[in-house]
Amino acid sequence: MFLQRQREPGRPGNVGGVDKKLTDKDERERLRAVKEENRRIKYVSASKSSASYEPLREVSSSNSSENIDSEDFPTLIESSEPGTCKSATRKYFMIPK
């Protein structure tokens, strides 16, 4: 079968005139350009969507001082034992002098 295909005019199975390394290089370059274009499109769409967000409202100074003086913070601090921290990464030990 292969030999019969070789004898046909035009030699359809022959790729002798095509440089395999060059075609691979061209294919990689094309894929790189497509990826770069996709990245550029994603960046532009992300910047447009982030620009559409409304800015945060500023809280007046009287309201912010009331929020700081709320009862939530002292109760959290008072509920923990002195000298220990409940997080797994930190432990405070009281060393006798």
Descriptive labels:
single chain, 97 residues, mainly alpha
Structure notes:
Residues 1-31, 44-83 are annotated as: Disordered. Residues 44-53 have a biased composition (Low complexity). Residues 1-10, 18-31 have a biased composition (Basic and acidic residues). The chain is an all-alpha fold and 97 residues long. The chain has a domain at 16-50. 56% of the residues lie in helices and 0% in strands. Residues 69-80 have low confidence and may be disordered.
Can you give me a brief rundown of this structure?
Residues 1-31, 44-83 are annotated as: Disordered. The chain is mainly alpha-helical and 97 residues long. The chain is built from 4 helices and no strands.
Note the topology.
Blueprint: H1 2-7, H2 20-51, H3 61-68, H4 72-79
